[in-house]
Design goal:
Length: 246
């Protein structure tokens, strides 16, 4: 679980954390809940919204003037307290890593963060750490949803009676959705519901194939063999080998 791993790294005072995630809203929700539970200060910054600092009432107070990435990095120090921790989350900040000023500011902040327990969390879909920062950042992966989470997502889409598949049909649907993000799974289940009046694996496989085509490197092949069939193939191959040997 993301929040548990992040709590461990924060407790161990890893002041530079690179969080690889394709689902920023979900990651931010987990981080915000963790900060509320642990009573940690939290700020987020992106180039569109500027700096947002979570207030005491749980609402976000936005500082519209803080639109400079270097100023945003330094702003986490204003959140430091003698006994608590302060987190600055920077979504898609890998886009600023070509700037010498940004790299230097990050290096200074991560190193000084151990003195006042301030933490920089870069939220990015890719791991692209400059050589100057390589030894200062540790990488955490935000896991894709497991079967139980995918089932919950499907249940949130298929809310009417008889819409939610059961038994083997449900397992086939979860097999098809494995490897999708929460956002992708919601879209696939919703489209299948529109087409078929219930989530079905065929539509999920179709969308998964389209997603892979975006890379231009992969194509999706749906095998029909079951594990038992593979065992039979191995057994037949072994028999053939014995016959040839004799």
């Amino acid at each position: 679980m993301l929040s548990q791993r992040l709590k461990e790294y924060i407790s161990a005072c890893f002041t530079g954390i690179w969080l690889q995630s394709h689902e920023h809203p979900d990651a931010l929700r987990e981080i915000a809940q963790l900060c509320r539970d642990e009573k940690w200060a939290l700020a987020t910054w992106d180039v569109d919204k500027g700096l947002s600092v979570a207030g005491a009432n749980g609402q976000a107070a936005t500082a519209a003037s803080a639109t400079d990435p270097v100023a945003a990095i330094k702003s986490v120090n204003s959140l430091a307290t003698p006994k608590g921790s302060a987190l600055l989350v920077l979504p898609n900040f890998h886009r600023f890593m070509s700037s010498t000023e940004v790299i230097q500011a990050l290096a200074h902040q991560v190193q000084s963060g151990k003195n006042n327990r301030t933490f920089v969390v870069i939220l990015s879909p890719i791991v692209q750490i400059p050589a100057e920062l390589d030894k200062l950042f540790t990488v955490i992966e935000h896991d894709l949803p497991g079967r139980k989470q995918l089932e919950i997502i499907a249940g949130g889409i298929a809310t009417e009676k008889e819409e939610m598949p059961k038994g083997e049909d449900l397992q086939r649907l979860l097999d098809a959705a494995s490897g999708l993000t929460r956002y992708e799974a919601e879209g696939a289940f919703s489209l299948s519901l529109v087409r078929n009046a219930k989530p079905q694996p065929e539509t999920v496989w179709e969308l998964k194939s389209q997603m892979l085509k975006k890379s231009g490197l992969l194509s999706l092949h749906r095998g029909t063999e079951k594990f038992a069939d593979l065992g039979g193939l191995v057994l037949k191959q072994a028999n053939v080998s014995r016959n040839l040997a004799s």
